[in-house]
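Need the bound structure for nicotinamide-adenine-dinucleotide, inputs here:
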Amino acid sequence: MTELHGKVAVVTGGASGIGRGIAEALLEQGATVVIADIQQDALDAAVAELAGRAGERISGHSLDVSKAASYEALRERVLETEGRIDVVCLNAGVGPSGAIRDLTAKDWEWILGVNLWGVIHGVTTFLPVLEANPDGGHIEITGSNAGFIAQQSIGSYSVAKYGVLALAEVLDLELREAGSKVRVTYLAPGMIRTNIGSSSRNRPAGLEGALHDADISKVINQDVRWMEPATAGRIAVRAILADDLYAPTDPSLVGPIRERHARIVAAHEKYPLWKE
Ligand SMILES: NC(=O)c1ccc[n+]([C@@H]2O[C@H](COP(=O)([O-])OP(=O)(O)OC[C@H]3O[C@@H](n4cnc5c(N)ncnc54)[C@H](O)[C@@H]3O)[C@@H](O)[C@H]2O)c1
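Answer from helper R.:
Posting the output first, comments after.
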């Protein structure tokens, strides 16, 4: 996709943080943007603020990404009001902490419901619409550097992000092989100044458990370099325009990725028994 002017984009989790940054960057490029979010007060406030700059090119819609029916209602509404959908940013996410050994089924239901199923439902709902466009479209998935490197305290978060990384990589291959004009981007943010540290504000009643809000910069074991959401949003949009699969925001995080892959390669060399 080389041009966003006149295109219609949907951004999940667009009321706050990186999603809001992506929405701003899309508006800067001339797109019409629908931000969809579970938190109605933040959604209304974001639409009101962005309308000051973008007028009628911004609107909001309530969405729970963990529910397929909620996505279907969003798709129908956007097609009805805007007539088309070209770009879908599957960005909504939660980032609570907690050791895997302490987690309950309810914890897993919450974090995988939003961070993994939220992307799966998004692809299932919107891919057919994008593929039906004569000029295709783009699916951006906000993953994480935690989809490359799993870390203690945010293990369940990494389980979801590894999952959406696999989804993005395989979908990209499938679409290219099929000659589709739809492309995929996996945004891998480092540390971005957002409201992710208070993710429990949107935790559904009945899914309480051991996962809890924590300052991620204090629980991860790597140096922290903060970035503003608007910059992360511009990186996502640049990757959409370049049809790039991987869009990392912090090159200083590449060291642990190299070390992890070196450990995996070394393990393969340690077990040569397949030759026997
Ligand atoms: N902040 C970081 O440092 C960082 C780093 C790597 C990846 N990410 C990823 O970026 C994405 C956005 O997070 P953020 O940091 O901007 O946090 P944020 O809390 O500022 O924004 C997340 C948005 O998602 C919405 N949301 C939560 N549950 C939802 C649901 N069930 N349905 C619809 N919307 C829902 C929230 O209301 C909120 O508006 C997430 O996928 C997160 O994993 C963030």
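Comments: The pocket of nicotinamide-adenine-dinucleotide is lined by residues 12-13, 15-19, 37-39, 42, 63-66, 91-95, 114, 142, 144, 189, 191-192, 194-196, 199, 202 (CB under 6 Å). The chain has one domain: 8-275.
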